[in-house]
Design brief:
Radius of gyration: 22 Å
Order of helices and strands: HHHEEHHHHHHHHEEHH
Number of helices: 13
Strand order of the largest sheet: 1-2
Shape: globular
Distance between the termini: 42 Å
Largest sheet: 2 strands, antiparallel
Number of strands: 4
Helix content: over 70%
Length: about 290
Amino acid sequence: MNELHQIEPKYSKTELTEFKDENQFMDAYVELLKQTITLLFLIVGERYCEGKEGIPRKINRNEAIIGGNLTRLIKLNTSFLENICNGKLEICCILNRCIAETAINTQFMIVEGEENVLKNYIKYSLITEKQLWNTIKENVKDRNVEKLHIEERMQKSIERSFNSSDFDLENVNRSSKWKSISKRAESVAGDQFYNIFYGIGSHSIHGNWQDILSNNLTREDDEFKVNLEWNRPRPQIMDGAIGMNLLLTKSFVEKENLKESKSYLEKTELLINYQSDLLNEHEKYLKK
């Protein structure tokens, strides 16, 4: 647990007030993002792995839902960090939206903590699998011939998904009680989180005009030119991911009562306060 005890803000509050350019803020934000990813690694390791080597241990389905989402969040954050350091804003925006949804889902399931919520999460995903199964079935019936090899493989894959999820094909229909993303976001982080952090990210995911205009074109007079250069990320793009990483760490530790719970919560609170100071100083810098 040396990694946990070594987590400290890179800069003091006084040092933050003395920053002269945005590169300094980028350095502070990148280091803070790294530390929040480290916290996620540590809580996943303690809860879902065993031994000095940290080998993943067997867990039940409900544990796997939370553990799998936290693992996804770590991978997304790591890729997000890599693209920030490589100066690729466009990819960062896409990953940021994925981080937002995964964090919202995980926080929602941790806070709600009910069996039915976890079941609805799985069922919502399996609806699409059931629809594909029915499509294959109808296609075979319409052709009045044996299933194609690819259709056989697809149905076996769907069956494996259902078996691993402890659901029967017959028990999944088109309806689901899994709340909408806006309701889940409002429940765990407030409606402003959805509108600002999640909602705006839709442009990048779907390639809306706003994303094309901002990142892939330049305007000259009344005309445009394609922009083949990558845009440079700025510090504020990391605020949402950092905040959600810390919120999830706090919620998970409080629920699971980990061995190092006190230290985790102290470090999380320390970084939450540090992020607040960093955000405030960066906003002051932008006003200059």
